[in-house]
Design brief:
With 507 residues, the chain is an alpha/beta fold. The protein has 14 helices and 22 strands. The strands form 5 sheets. Strands 5-4-3-2-1-6-17 form a 7-stranded mixed beta sheet. It catalyses: a quinone + NADPH + H(+) = a quinol + NADP(+); a quinone + NADH + H(+) = a quinol + NAD(+).
Length: 507
């Protein structure tokens, strides 16, 4: 959680706000009485068109504000154009390949003959076609957002914005012109970009960041993925399912070090069973391009070769050149913008949302931060951001979905809790679908039985976790969940079943 900023004055309308002319009086006849003046319309300027920015713009517009949104590269931001939408579209294709691999177990045989030098399967992927679809879908989603904003009356300016004082934004437009926008409220939602290392600079051809993968026409013969966090694990799993050889270089003991330990163990086991080479406790020191591939040199001197290398070593906030210091906006040592739970910065009238704040790098959190910021700035009812009710998902196969407190955090703070785990292989619906890997795990308070958190590891876990999200956010007990009906047979039946095992275990 980022540091709070107590005692900041509420943003108020500035002298530069425009007034809305009064409406003519009703009735059929003219009136000599002047129309009653209306309150000045607040001007909201949003810098950045990602989820935090465009959601904030929509909320502000519906609240009656005049809204100008400044975006440099395309509406939707990285989430739509280079990150969430493209990667999950690619992963969706990989998921179908994983399902197809289960076909023989389900009694389905392919009549196709695999190529002599190809994988031992009757289906192959055309990566060029996959990536063209990825890019087209991302562009279509971006256009849908643009259309929606314009239909709602948001002014969209193509260009780069920077603060010139807390309530003034200078915009360098794409055509070369410059304009200054006086604002009552400013929201910064500039996102983040892939972290680059001097010893492994991406070239867009052999050494790649995750934003550059979608230009590949052919499937990498052997992909070396550096970094075993969420991004690295997702792409490593996807490219292995698509048919590439994959080496995953992890500096930690296990993949996905930030996730539930049991869940990460399942994913790493699945990776190895599918033929992925996982190098644990191996830190990459440098990456260099060769005539026909790459060489990744590890800190212990070992050299890993491949045809391509994906650098997935985190991201850095896009906060340089925003005029933060001159406007009085404080940042952390990592360069993230400090915000409190209603998205206020240290400068009057300036809010921030999304990855530039470092709160939690999820599109859903960015959007919520933006909505909360506008509600607070424009005087609506506000519920401060609560990270304990955020649901998140890792799009591996199987997926990992989590909500609420983690087992690690409960142990660290000393909360008395009870927990239960049920393996997915026991679920009848999972058996029918040939699903073997995964589980449902629930944490409940040892005295009250209130659900504190949960983990779902399963195909489409991101869909299955919603009942647990409701339980955590509404403070339901494990008995409340256990006594709710589920369809039989269904994967969600495991959620109710694991809750039933907690009955009478609270003390």
């Amino acid at each position: 959680m980022t540091a709070t900023t107590p005692g900041i004055a509420e943003p108020g309308p500035s002298s530069t706000s425009t007034s809305t002319p009064g409406a003519a009086p009703g009735g059929t006849g003219a009136s000599d009485a002047p129309a009653a003046p209306t309150a000045p319309t607040a001007h909201v300027v949003v810098v950045g068109g990602g989820p935090g920015g465009y959601e904030a713009a929509l909320v502000a517009r519906r609240a009656g504000a005049r809204v100008t949104l400044v975006e440099r590269t395309g509406l939707g931001g990285a989430a739509v154009l280079t990150d969430v939408v493209p990667s999950k579209t690619l992963i969706a294709t990989a998921e179908w390949m994983t399902i197809a691999d289960r076909a023989p177990e389900l009694g389905i045989r392919s009549t196709a003959v695999p190529p002599p030098d190809g994988p031992a399967r009757g289906h192959v992927v055309d990566l060029g076609a996959v990536n063209r679809r990825v890019v087209e879908l991302a562009a279509a989603q971006s256009q849908d957002i643009a259309t929606r904003l314009r239909d709602e009356g948001v002014e969209v300016v193509v260009g780069s914005g920077r603060l010139d004082g807390p309530q003034r934004v200078v915009v360098d437009e794409a055509g070369g012109a410059s304009r200054t926008l006086e604002a009552d409220v400013v929201l910064l939602a500039t996102g983040a970009t892939p972290r680059e290392l001097p010893e492994a600079m991406p070239d867009g051809e052999r050494i790649l960041s995750w934003t550059q993968l979608y230009g590949l026409e052919d499937l990498p013969r052997r992909l070396v993925v550096v970094g075993s966090g969420v991004t690295g694990a997702e792409f490593a799993g996807a490219y292995r399912s698509l048919g590439a050889e994959v080496v995953l270089v992890s500096s930690r003991d296990h993949v996905l070090p930030g996730e539930d330990a049991d869940a990460a163990e399942v994913i790493e086991q699945v990776f190895r069973e599918r033929g992925m080479e996982v190098l644990s406790r191996s830190r990459a020191a440098s990456v260099r391009r060769t005539d026909d591939g790459v060489e990744v040199t590890l800190a212990d001197g070992r050299v890993v070769t491949g045809s391509h290398c994906l650098m997935a070593v985190g991201s850095v906030p896009s906060t340089q050149g925003l005029g933060l210091e001159s406007a009085g906006v404080r940042t952390t040592r990592s360069g993230h913008i400090e915000v409190d739970r209603v998205s206020r910065t240290s400068a009057r009238g300036v809010y921030a949302a999304g990855d530039c704040t470092g709160v939690l790098p999820l599109a859903s959190v960015a959007a919520m931060q933006g909505r909360i910021a506008m509600a607070h700035a424009l005087g609506d009812a506000v519920v401060p951001l609560d990270l304990q009710v955020v649901a998140s998902n890792v799009f591996t196969a199987p997926e990992i979905a989590t909500v609420g407190a983690s087992q690690r955090s409960l142990d660290e703070v000393g909360v008395r809790y009870v927990t239960s785990r049920l393996d997915l292989a026991r679920n009848p619906r999972a058996k029918m679908l040939g699903m073997k890997d995964g589980f449902v795990k629930l944490f409940a308070h040892a005295t009250t039985g209130i659900v504190l958190g949960g983990v779902v590891v399963a195909p489409r876990a991101g869909e299955l976790v919603f009942p647990l999200t409701l339980a955590v956010s509404q403070r339901l007990t494990a008995d409340d969940v256990a006594q709710s009906f589920t369809v039989y047979p269904s994967l969600s039946g495991s959620i109710a079943e694991v809750a039933r095992t907690l009955h009478n275990r609270a003390v």
